[in-house]
């Protein structure tokens, strides 16, 4: 049996793609996935292009792996968003790489490998293709407790800093029926929590066979009717594509987790304008208000970028203010990274790195403080926890997630894995909770 090693970078969509690749290569060519690269016959680096140095890291990782992998015939492949964006450059910089492909092409992996075997040499397949990918992919037969379903892919928003529209291509929504069939199969395979994925999932729109146009809210209502779906989440949402229906479902759909990841990026309207986000800070806060009115204890998560070209101390303070005002349950924050081909990369007035670093530290302190306060506020509460597995830190403990997306570790035995259990929270830490089974 041939052995496959996949190393993954980037977002949940990339993680999902890797699962699909592994299933495809297993079903069509008999590849078994292994956890260490040494014995691999095929090594795939499923890359991310979102921030700088991705390419640099890729080439050093390739060099390192080349020394580790035992078989001289092993095939090195680069997939994902760097594959899409850098294409031929990968072959130039790392001539031993024999296969490069993008996120819209990986369903053709068996053909690519066949071509490599017959013709030798190299194969590059990163032309953005028509969206036949999902029809060509086999179903995931043994999903985890949490399983992802792509409902929408690509992005037409072209925020001025972002490469995703160039790597994932245009916005495209999958048919309602295909999504429901996939969810039904995942649940039959043991999945309890379904994540509906999209680069801009709020842009979901598809005409169903019943003649009704489904937006994301309607799709969620439909998925919630599928027996066995205990929990639903969706990621990632764009504030300019929010609507009142998407607020209402949080109060109405019981299986929808009380959690929303709604990236804001900056609290300054001037910077939001330069980013072409299509909304203001006040507009964002209106959605936060509406969400909290519909569901007072909804958990809110966000993304921030500091050091965008031209960001002044006053702009940054507006961001810090907004972060404090909302008091997010969780947030990611990054220093602006100039990406090839994006509008922002050509903007003048770059913020010096030490200034950006200092702003990031201040923002992260504020975000960390609100996250910790939110975690501490759960102490004494009873939570429903979907048990995902054995805790990595302590083998005698289980780990799972609350509806609010908080990790909880608690003593327990493995037969609980896959169940939703009641846990009393005993401790709130910086990044997780501790608890006791009730
Ligand atoms: N589709 C998602 C975001 C995908 S990228 C959305 O719009 O919400 C995830 C996060 O990476 C973004 O929210 C942003 O905060 C960050 N990011 C994207 N491009 C970046 C860049 N050029 N520099 C720094 N951070 C960036
Ligand atoms: Fe990138 Fe903006 Fe699209 Fe998100 S919405 S993927 S940040 S272009
Ligand atoms: Fe990265 Fe591509 Fe996802 S650039 S964040 S892997 S869409």
From TrEMBL:
Principal EC category: transferase
Cofactor: [4Fe-4S] cluster
EC number: 2.8.4.3
Chain positions recorded as [4Fe-4S] cluster 1 binding sites: 11, 48, 81
Domain TRAM: 376-438
Cofactor binding, note field: Binds 2 [4Fe-4S] clusters. One cluster is coordinated with 3 cysteines and an exchangeable S-adenosyl-L-methionine.
Domain MTTase N-terminal: 2-118
HAMAP family hit by this protein: tRNA_metthiotr_MiaB
NCBIfam families documented for this protein: miaB-methiolase (TIGR01574), MiaB/RimO family radical SAM methylthiotransferase (TIGR00089)
Subunit structure: Monomer.
Annotated function: Catalyzes the methylthiolation of N6-(dimethylallyl)adenosine (i(6)A), leading to the formation of 2-methylthio-N6-(dimethylallyl)adenosine (ms(2)i(6)A) at position 37 in tRNAs that read codons beginning with uridine.
Similarity field: Belongs to the methylthiotransferase family. MiaB subfamily.
Stated name of the protein: tRNA-2-methylthio-N(6)-dimethylallyladenosine synthase
